[in-house]
Amino acid sequence: MRYIVAMNDSDGRHRQILQQIARRAMSERGLLIDFSSEVRGEVAIQQGSRLASDGARDLRGLTWCSIDNDDSRDLDQLTVAEDLGAGQVRVMVAVADVTARVSRDDAIDAHAHHNTTTVYTPALIFPMLPEELSTDLTSLNQGKDRLAVVVDVTVQANGEVAASTVTRALVRNRAKLAYRSVAAWLEGEAAAPPALMAVPGLDDNLRLQDRAAQALRTQRFSHGALDLQTLETRAVFEGDSVRRLEVDDDNRAKDIIENFMIAANGVVARYLEAVGLPSLRRVVREPRRWDRIVQLAAGLGTRLPGTPDSKALQDFLGERRAADPQRFPDLSLAVVKLLGAGEYMADPPGEDPPGHFGLAVRDYGHSTAPNRRYPDIVTQRLLKAAMAGQPSSYSMAELTEVARLCTQREDDANKVERQVRKSAAALLLEGQRGRRFEGLVTGASDKGTWVRVFDPPVEGRVVEGEHGMDVGDRVTVRLAGTNVEAGFIDFARA
C-alpha cells in the first residue's frame, strides 16, 4: 500500500504545513515561486512612473463597478450597461490595461511568460505578476483612474449580439462588490450591500446588467451550451487550522460576469479575425468518451445520439437538473471529466477553429483577466496592434509556442492547486481511518480509479476493490489512509 496515516500533531500548524507543500509542489512542476531582483527593479520603476492616457476615451463618468470574490484584490474587469430601448442593452466590459506597464520581453513579462498563470492554493497565492502591479497599478481598484481596453457590445432582447467595438479608455471603478452579497440582493434574499447603495443609480444599472446577462445565457443554451454545476470548495481556516471545506456555489452575480466575459471573449476573437490578425483561442474539442456519456444518459432513461451533440446533451442536463437537483452536481462532475480538458491554440485568420464544445461557440479566446493569465496579455498586445492598424505583434510560430506552453502550465498549475487542496482535505480527515463515505467515480483508467465523496466534498484514489468501477458510478468507500505531505487520500471499496 502506498498510503500512510497522516501526522496527528499537526493541528495549529495547518497553514504552515500547506505553505511548505505548496512551495514544494510549485518547484516540482518547474513553476517560479519568487520574483527575481530584476523583476523587483522594474517594479520600482513602474511605481515611480505615471501613464499617459493619450488617445484613450474618457469614460470615467460611467457607473462602472467590479464584482468578484470577497477577498479578490487583483481586479481585472469592470462592467456597466445602458438601456438602448426596444429591448436592446449596451454592455461595456473594461479590462485592465496590463500591457501599458508590462512590456514584451522585460523581466516582469519573462516571469509571467514562464508561469503563465496565477496559482491559487488554500494557504498561499503565487501571483503571475508582482502584487505591486496586479493588486495596485494594473488592478481596477475602487476610486482609482485606470487605463483599460473596453469591449462594447449591443445585446438584443433575444440575447444575440447586434454590434460590437473595441477601444482604449480611461475608467474609474465606482464600487468594489462581491458575488455573494450582490447575488443575495438580486434574488431578494438580503438588502443591497452598502457599497452598492453608496453609488446613485448603480442598483438600476446592475438590474439592467442582470437582464442582459440572462438574455445572453438563454441564447447560448438555445445553441447547446452546457449548463453544468460542479462543486468548487475552499478550505476554511480558524486561526491556522483547517476546520471545514466550504462549497463555492454558483449564483446570479456570477452569471452576470460569466456571460459578459464569454460575450467579450467572442467579440475579441472575431475582431482580430476581421482585421486579418491571428489570435489565441481557447478550445474544447468534441469529447472522446462520448460513448460513456451516452451510457450515463441511458442509465437515467435518456437516449443520446451516437455522435457528439451539445444541444442534445444540454437538453438531457436540463431535464436532470429539474428532476434531481440534489444529485445534479454529481452528474455534472462526471460529464466534465468525460468532456476532457480545454487547451489553447493559435488560430490564423481565415481558418475554421474547433470552437468550444461546452460553450457551443466557434469564436472564443481569453482576454478578460490579464492580471492572472498570460494568454490574456498576449491577446491584449494583439488587440492594441489591431486598433493601431499595425501588423501582428507575434508570428504564428510564436503564438503556437505560447499556446503550447500555456496549455502545459495550466495543467501544472491545476495539479499544484489540486495537490494542496487535497493536502488540506487530508489534514481535515486525519485520524478518521475506517470511516465510510458515499461517493461518485470521477476517473477510471490505467493510471487509477478516483472517487469524490460527498461529505466532506473531497476526491481520492481507490486502492482496494476498484475493479469494474467507471466514471459516473455511485459507490460506498471507506477511508484507507491519508498522506498529508503527498496530498493522498486513499479509499477502499466498502
Q: Can you offer a commentary on this structure?
A:
This protein has 494 residues and is α+β, with helices and mostly antiparallel strands. The protein has a domain at 31-284 and 341-394. The chain is built from 13 helices and 18 strands. The protein has helices at residues 14-28, 37-47, 107-115, 131-137, 179-186, 194-197, 202-222, 252-274, 290-299, 310-323, 328-339, 374-387, 396-429, and strands at residues 57-58, 66-68, 77-85, 88-96, 119-120, 125-126, 145-155, 161-172, 176-178, 232-238, 241-248, 279-283, 343-347, 436-445, 448-453, 458-464, 474-483, 488-493. The strands form 6 sheets. The chain has a 5-stranded mixed β-sheet with strand order 1-8-7-4-3. A 5-stranded mixed β-barrel has the order 14-15-16-18-17. It has a two-stranded parallel ribbon with strand order 2-9. Strand 5 (119-120) and strand 6 (125-126) form a beta hairpin. Helix 1 runs antiparallel to helix 13 (396-429) and helix 7 crosses helix 8 (252-274). The model is unreliable at 1-8 (pLDDT under 50).
